[in-house]
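One example copied in:
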Amino acid sequence: MEQTSANDPVIEFRNVAYALPGGQQLLSGLNLQVRRGETLVLLGRSGSGKTTTLKLVNRLLTPTGGEVHVNGAPTAESDVIRLRRSIGYVIQEVGLFPHFTVERNIGLVPQIEGWTSERVHRRVEELLRMVGLDAQLASRYPHQLSGGQRQRVGVARALAADPAIVLMDEPFGALDALTRDQLQREFLSLQLRLNKTVVFVTHDLREALRLASRIALMEAGRLVTILSPEDFLRSSDPLASAYVRAFRDGLDSAVNRGAS
């Protein structure tokens, strides 16, 4: 494993490509670094390569070209089970085990890692408080929870073993506007406290502007530009301006519709 310093990227894509077995190219020439403690938002339309990029980090997919490095080591040379257990993963559909209680869902990875039952129980209680849920929900099953509660449990599960890296794929996309707003605020509060390295996928510019340290705009399997939220709103980069402007125009239209 390579030696890393505090200034080295936690995640790095080095000229990464990904193609389906039939030859369809989903990603090409991707060079991208994710800094320690930042929330990098992958923004783009459907089919732009956001989720493919995310899945390459924890080896749910393997690059067909180039290399992905996590903590200085190529993921292709890493033990895939250890890699995935060291990375939190939150998806839109939550993916909770329906026959497990909330406590068993959250405590699954710590239990696999050999934590004692008492330690797992304390961790579950701590995480339920952290994500704004009552400890009494620990004995319930996913079908007994609201959508917002299930999503909070999904976040708690991703944080259970205290991973340094968290991947989030449209985690709030299926929720109503009010719940989504609340969970975005809670995410910001959690990130201030926990300082995780987060890669967050969304197609929603408002969400990206609210949550991101930096926004990586993707289109047709390529990285268009990486900008801070402030720079994204005022970008005049001639190479990226058409794509950036399209997202900004869409945001302006939505704001105007809401005001009318």
In short: Residues 241-259 form the longest helix (19 residues).
